[in-house]
Design goal:
Mean pLDDT of chain B: 97
Oligomer: heterodimer
Largest sheet of chain B: 5 strands, mixed
Strand order of the largest sheet of chain B: 2-1-3-4-5
Number of helices of chain A: 7
Largest sheet of chain A: 4 strands, mixed
Mean pLDDT of chain A: 95
CATH superfamily of the largest domain in chain B: NADH-ubiquinone oxidoreductase 51kDa subunit
CATH topology of the largest domain in chain B: Rossmann fold
Radius of gyration of chain B: 23 Å
Strand content of chain A: 5-15%
Bound molecules: flavin mononucleotide, iron/sulfur cluster, FE2/S2 (inorganic) cluster
Distance between the termini of chain A: 25 Å
Strand order of the largest sheet of chain A: 2-1-3-4
Shape of chain B: globular
CATH architecture of the largest domain in chain A: 3-Layer(aba) Sandwich
Number of strands of chain B: 18
Low-confidence stretches of chain B: none
Helix content of chain A: 40-55%
Chain lengths: ~150, ~500
């Protein structure tokens, strides 16, 4: 992991140095941003650990722990709200026995929310990794999840 | 064997979510079919929609399943696209290419009038470009509705260098998707608008800050930038004008222009106090135009058709067209581009097609999560900036979400305050603390522990947030909550502890 972070740090070097871009690049390749790497990131970007930690804690999409193999996100935006995303979320919570922010035992799925996928006209919306599902009914949740190994 | 039949199928994210992807998979190795993946017309209730060329324009089949292929190939049961009421009654200018072209086909973009605005911009002096925008009456489409020419003038006159052009593709308002459609469906239009801006203000670099929730949009835009570069379009008067796509990281407030600039610099997305405005001192302290994707996409035609053409559409203080995005419990959710001035009721009836089956109207929210709620009695309001301002409401980015009879207004109000509490950047107290207190009060009411004093407290808190917040997140957050209480008081009172 240590070497992987170092090699990413060498690749993403930009002028002027950009903390957010660097953290996103690390997360893209490692899956999360290891807290142990903060001081090394700070050194490589010629900035303080406080600044790096501040950026890391600010953005909802940056994670300090590895998520499950598949990340499920239920849209909680207003169009999805009007179309019953609450019921879809409940169906997912029941099926997975996990709450928002939690992973299933064994780490297959992590359940999360988002605030709009721009799929409002075909809502409610659920994304799983890079796949996006629209007009999702609570009754379909199980069939959809069975596609993921 | 005879030539395969050309079938047009959208590759837009929402069309795929509606089933376009499985159609493409199902027909992938049918030799009698040549699939052309185009942008979407935005009539999402009809997607997946399949079209083929007819003697008199395109013919469409709606809500298609793989089994419909024989009737499409034999040409039975289709509808002429130009006779679809949802589309026929719109004034498609910025969205004229949608459903027609392949998003990355630069030649098709040009054949349909693309790049004519940029050519005009190269013929004009920077002052004349800005004058054309002044005549057009174009106001920013990202929410604040500030006159575009005015901002450009400030940036043009600023002495510092380099200058930057930043497209705001954060599209954070839930219920809005027109920027996503442009990024995925007509990306060269955005690039053309940015280049015109760069030429007018003398900028040497462009950025597009794209929300992380739009992976297909970012990928399409990157491919479009590559194509534009190959065609040597990213060049202004002999100087390169590189454009870079930068990913956001899930923060709503990063759509606010100064927070966006902080985020582009790689920092926490905290709002900056203004002035100085970004046009004076923006990215890395340099003069920067931050404008919404739709704003940039509107500009090419203002130059090619003339500012006076744009000013001839719409109402006195709201010139041009507005891209409304219908969502929630309407029967026909989708993109509606019309001149400003129709009433909310006209839009919901004519285009929305009324309510989704089984639903009765309860309220409509215009302008995203910070927008006001309107009951049935408020639907005569004309859709234009001044009428909305007078009503204490905003058009925002043009999102319209309809709620039906099953909506619990207390829960919806709690949902809004919880959103603000989650997304507040924390810079100013009224928003940082106020939103949390507001959420707590609404949770108390929801749990049956609230009193009428809590309603008065919400009102008081709301007024403080409106007046004292640094940016529109805190300043607008009370509106959906207070309009919910105003129009549905019984629902709130019935939950109170007596
Ligand atoms: C909390 C908040 C979120 C915003 N989000 C967006 C957004 O997602 N997209 C956008 O274009 N403008 C957004 N804005 C408005 C921008 O601050 C800015 O006014 C706009 O990008 C300027 O572009 P325009 O002149 O083309 O409207 C937001 C404003 C606030 C206060
Ligand atoms: S109103 Fe909220 S989001 Fe805006 S500056 Fe203040 S704390 Fe930040
Ligand atoms: S509100 Fe859920 S996709 Fe936009």
């Amino acid at each position: 992991m240590h070497e992987q972070v170092q090699s990413i740090l060498r690749q993403v070097r930009s002028e002027p140095p950009n903390v957010l871009k660097t953290l996103l690049a690390i997360q893209e390749q490692v899956g999360h941003v290891p807290v142990e790497a903060i001081s090394e990131i700070a050194r490589s970007l010629d900035t303080t650990t406080a600044l790096v930690a501040g950026v890391l804690s600010y953005y909802p999409d940056l994670r300090v722990a590895a998520p499950g193999r598949h990340v499920i996100r239920v849209c909680m935006g207003e169009s999805c709200y009007a179309n019953g995303c609450g019921r879809v979320l409940r169906a997912l919570q029941d099926y997975l026995r996990a709450d928002v922010g939690e992973s299933t035992p064994g780490g297959k799925f992590t359940l999360g929310t988002m605030s709009c996928a721009g799929n409002c006209a075909v809502s409610p919306t659920v994304t799983i990794d890079r796949d996006l599902y629209g007009r999702v009914l609570p009754s379909e949740v199980e069939t959809i999840l069975k596609r993921y190994r | 064997m005879s030539n395969p039949t050309r079938l047009y199928l959208s590759n837009d994210t929402s069309a795929r979510a509606a089933g376009a992807g499985s159609l493409a998979d199902a027909w992938a190795d049918r030799p009698e079919v040549q699939l052309i993946r185009v942008s979407s017309r935005g009539a999402f209730f009809l997607e997946p929609m399949v079209e083929r060329d007819g003697p008199d324009g395109r013919i469409a089949w709606f809500n298609v399943t793989p089994d419909d292929l024989p009737s499409i190939l034999s040409g039975t049961g289709g509808t002429a696209v130009r006779s679809i009421p949802f589309l026929a009654h719109q004034a498609r200018y910025t969205f004229a290419n949608f459903g027609e072209t392949e998003p990355l086909a630069l030649d098709a973009y040009q054949a349909r009038g693309g790049l004519a605005g940029l050519e005009e911009a190269f013929r004009l002096a920077p002052d004349a470009i800005i004058e054309e925008l002044r005549i057009s009456g174009l106001r920013g489409r990202g929410g604040a509705a500030f006159p575009v020419w005015n901002k450009w003038k400030v940036a043009q006159q600023a002495k510092a260098h380099p200058k930057y052009v930043v497209a705001n593709a954060d599209e954070g308002d839930a219920g809005t998707y027109c920027d996503r459609m442009i990024l995925e469906g007509d990306p060269f239009r955005l690039l053309e608008g940015m280049l015109i801006c760069a030429r007018a203000i003398g900028a040497s670099r462009g950025y597009v800050y794209c929300r992380q929730e739009y992976p297909a949009a970012a990928a399409t835009l990157r491919a479009a930038i590559h194509k534009a570069d190959e065609a040597e379009l990213l060049d202004i008067d002999g100087e390169p004008f590189p454009i870079e796509v930068v990913d956001g990281a899930g923060s709503y407030v990063c759509g606010e222009e100064t927070a966006l600039l902080e985020s582009l610099e790689g920092k926490r997305g905290i709002v900056r106090a203004r002035p100085p405005y970004p046009a004076q001192a923006g990215l890395y302290g340099r003069p920067t135009i931050v404008s919404n994707v739709l704003t940039f996409a509107t500009i090419p035609q203002i130059l090619s058709r003339g500012g006076a053409w744009h000013a001839s559409l719409g109402t006195e203080h709201s010139r041009g067209t507005i891209a409304l995005q219908l969502g929630g419990r309407v029967k026909h959710p989708g993109l509606v581009e019309v001149p400003f001035g129709l009433s909310l009721r006209q839009v919901l009836d004519q285009f929305g097609g009324g309510m989704a089956p089984g639903s009765r109207f309860k309220a409509v929210q215009v302008g995203g999560p910070l927008g006001s709620l309107f009951p049935a009695a408020g639907l005569e309001l004309p859709i234009c900036y001044d009428a909305f301002a007078k009503a204490g409401a905003v058009l925002g980015h043009g999102g319209i979400v309809v709620y039906d009879h099953e909506t619990d207004m207390v829960d919806l109000a709690r949902h809004f305050m919880a959103f603000t509490a989650d997304e507040s950047c924390g810079k100013c107290t009224p928003c940082r603390i106020g939103s949390v207190r507001g959420r707590e009060i609404l949770e108390r009411i929801q749990a049956g522990g609230g009193t009428s004093e809590d309603l008065a407290l919400l009102d008081d808190l709301g007024e403080t947030m409106k007046l004292a917040s640094l940016c529109a997140l805190g300043g607008r957050a009370p509106y959906p909550v207070l309009t919910a209480i105003e129009h549905f008081p019984v629902e709130f009172r019935s939950k109170l502890r007596t």
